[in-house]
Design goal:
Number of strands: 13
Shape: globular
Number of helices: 5
Helix content: 10-25%
Structural class: alpha+beta
Strand content: 25-35%
CATH architecture: 4-Layer Sandwich
Order of helices and strands: EHEHEEEEEHEHEEHEEE
Strand order of the largest sheet: 3-4-2-1-11-10-13
Length: about 270
């Protein structure tokens, strides 16, 4: 499949926890994850739980997936796993002009990070993407959310473009992290549709994966991707959003959270 850059104004963004490319059959298959990403046909993809270079057990999943699909990659290592780099991966059809990994580790907990990647659209507009994977403990997520919404990361004065925050927030019920993020973003649209649940993939019960976005973006469609391949490739389902850039101005302080309102079959692109 040939990957083509999206239009200057309209693009697709996806977030997907790939579970170290280990599927429900317990097989580690980066190729299968790449096939799911071909179905998504997204211009920008945020992946969590990716194993990079250095592991004698796992192949370099960051390099494999990026090269198989022709994306520009940015990787944020948060810790080592079986001797290899382990963290978040951002894939983009648009050039990545800068990337930085921020440490948001809560005291006494597993190392966690937020990967920032600055992308340049064909018209020159800059997108700031923040790929996050928060922890599994309530207080841990609250501390990490405070890091995320600080002057160091989301409120950094050097940010001049449109911002998108996406990833696995591990918030199975609204808690401190949800409240802090919602307060920072202004408001959050929430759908009660069952289609918003992303985990576990076969019978989704929990909504863990989210996309927050600046109001210079207009959300056209957002849904889960439920192809046969996606139901096996990981324990999460991918979330796919289609945006249109409405303004060239500096990001507005009012943010939104995308709400899933329809099944993804209408969005899926078959390889």
């Amino acid at each position: 499949m040939t990957i083509k850059a999206g239009s200057p104004d309209t693009f697709r963004v996806a977030t997907y926890n790939v579970h170290k490319c280990r599927g429900l059959d317990q097989r580690v298959r980066p190729r299968r994850i790449a096939q799911v990403l071909r179905e998504l046909d997204a211009d920008i993809v945020a992946l969590q739980e990716v194993v990079g270079f250095g592991s004698p057990v796992y192949e370099d999943q960051t390099r494999y997936v990026a090269e198989a699909l022709g994306y520009h990659p940015a990787f944020g290592e948060n810790r080592r796993h079986n001797g290899g780099a382990y963290g978040n991966l951002l894939l983009s059809r648009f050039p990545i002009v800068r990337s930085q990994n921020y440490d948001i580790t809560a005291r006494g907990r597993e190392p966690r990070g937020v990967l920032r990647a600055d992308l340049r659209l064909p018209d020159g507009h800059v997108l700031h993407l923040f790929n996050a994977h928060l922890g599994t403990a309530y207080r841990e997520r609250g501390e990490q959310a405070r890091h995320l919404t600080s002057l160091r990361i989301l409120c950094n004065s050097e940010l001049s473009g449109t911002r998108i925050v996406l990833g696995d927030f591990n918030e199975w019920i609204p808690g401190e992290a949800t409240r802090l993020l919602s307060a920072h973003f202004g408001w959050a649209r929430r759908s009660r549709s069952a289609h918003r649940r992303t985990y576990p993939c076969v019978l989704p019960l929990l909504r863990l994966d989210h996309i927050y976005f600046d109001d210079s973006l207009k959300l056209h469609r957002l849904a889960l991707h439920r192809s046969r391949k996606a139901l096996v490739a990981s324990d999460h389902l991918p979330v796919l959003a289609e945006f249109r850039l409405e303004s060239r101005s500096v990001a507005h302080p009012l943010w939104h959270e995308a709400s899933i309102t329809q099944p993804v079959q209408a969005l899926s692109v078959q390889a």
